[in-house]
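Anyone up for a design puzzle?
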């Protein structure tokens, strides 16, 4: 039996992970779960899965849950407790599915404890890729991507990297692939969250609409596969059937295909190197034709350009960009700035922030906080 710690149990990835667990109760035990505020949903999950630990990072939510819970589950509170369940001696696999920089510390704790980390929280790598990858190496942790593109590349590289020329991430283009730039001025959060193929949390849905998600994924790929930005390509593919491709020197290309459903990706991370049922039906190619491909528009999707630039500049730029993006997306979701302001806020923050090469986690955290303060100040100037 594999003991699973699920960070971000109430989210989109969290729910899909539990759906896979439900298909294989003889193989996976839900050992610990976490969420931020939704204690009601956590109460239900505790009843169903009887985990040993539950972490609520929000204090009030923890108090409510503690009052209501009748099972043997121990309720822990606060962000530090995430690190505890991620590195607990009884934890075997950690699903790192908290959204944003809030997920970094616990993902790193899992790496330092030598666990299998199923990494959905791409922001960890964007913020602290060097430190994170070093921790994985030093502690013989197992890092399996839980992002459809990176899982695809990981799967295509199972035969080895000999003759590897480049990798190519596919991007659906989100809801605004064919919307002209001038029409993006007035889009609402609900329009921006309405992804045509994938059902996801609100932050990553906005990231998909701006294509910052692809930008974060380029950086994620740089760290996961140890490739320079010149070897990472992006192609628009609105159907989201080809999840990504690997190009070799001999003219061969390997791609991984499937229906756009994260349960395939999650079940692969849980069963690797084997495969288990995920609940996702097999692809019917005749129902998905034609498959289309386009070159990305870096002017319309300036977040993608900014991400490539930040990766080339390296050092603190990637963390600065991530922090400014989180602040800007949150402000957009709250109606404080417009959709097109998101990339402007990020670019202005990058121009204003000090650039340096963080070598410790505290420097990474300090940079994250000061970039948030700069982005906040820029947004206030809009009001
Ligand atoms: P979501 O918004 O649906 O869920 C986020 C989870 O994080 C929730 O359980 C929430 O309680 C928790 N959380 C939020 N703020 C927190 C905080 N401050 N401290 C602790 N916990 C907090 O998000 P999601 O769509 O499931 O995405 C999770 C991560 O997976 C993101 O990093 C995203 O980029 C990545 N990802 C998601 C998908 C997808 O299909 N949803 C695909 C690839 C990668
Ligand atoms: Mg992805």
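Challenge accepted. My sequence:
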């Amino acid at each position: 039996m594999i003991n699973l710690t699920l960070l971000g149990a109430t989210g989109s990835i969290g729910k899909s992970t539990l759906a896979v667990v439900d298909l294989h109760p003889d193989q996976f035990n839900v050992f610990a779960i976490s969420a931020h505020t939704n204690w009601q949903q956590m109460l239900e999950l505790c009843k169903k899965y009887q985990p040993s630990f539950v972490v609520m990072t929000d204090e009030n939510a923890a108090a409510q849950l503690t009052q209501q819970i009748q099972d043997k589950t121990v309720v822990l509170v606060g962000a530090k407790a995430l690190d505890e369940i991620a590195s607990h001696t009884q934890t075997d696999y950690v699903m790192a599915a908290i959204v944003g920089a809030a997920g970094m510390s616990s993902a790193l704790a899992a790496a330092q404890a030598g666990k299998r980390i199923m990494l959905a929280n791409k922001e960890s790598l964007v913020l602290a890729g060097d430190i994170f990858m070093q921790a994985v190496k030093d502690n013989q942790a197992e890092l399996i991507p839980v992002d459809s593109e990176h899982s695809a590349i990981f799967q295509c590289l199972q035969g080895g990297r000999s003759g590897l020329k480049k990798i190519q991430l596919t991007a659906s283009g989100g809801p605004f692939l064919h919307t002209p730039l001038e029409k993006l001025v007035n889009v609402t959060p609900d329009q921006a969250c309405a992804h045509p193929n994938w059902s996801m949390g609100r932050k990553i849905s906005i990231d998909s609409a701006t294509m910052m998600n692809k930008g974060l994924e380029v950086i994620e790929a740089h760290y996961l596969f140890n490739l320079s930005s010149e070897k990472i390509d992006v192609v628009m593919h609105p159907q989201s059937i080809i999840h990504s491709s690997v190009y070799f020197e001999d003219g061969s290309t390997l791609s991984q295909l499937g229906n756009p459903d994260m349960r395939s990706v999650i079940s692969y991370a849980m069963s690797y190197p084997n495969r288990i049922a995920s609940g996702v039906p097999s692809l019917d190619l005749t129902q998905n034709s034609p498959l289309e491909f386009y070159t990305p528009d870096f002017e319309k999707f300036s977040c993608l350009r900014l991400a490539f630039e930040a990766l080339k500049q390296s050092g603190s730029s990637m963390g600065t960009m991530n922090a400014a993006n989180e602040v800007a997306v949150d402000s957009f979701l709250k109606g404080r700035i417009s959709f097109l302001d998101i990339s402007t806020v990020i670019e202005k923050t990058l121009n204003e922030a000090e650039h340096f090469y963080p070598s410790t986690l505290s420097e990474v955290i300090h940079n994250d906080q000061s970039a948030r303060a700069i982005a906040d100040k820029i947004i206030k100037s809009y009001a």
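A detail worth pointing out: Residues 361-382 form the longest helix (22 residues).
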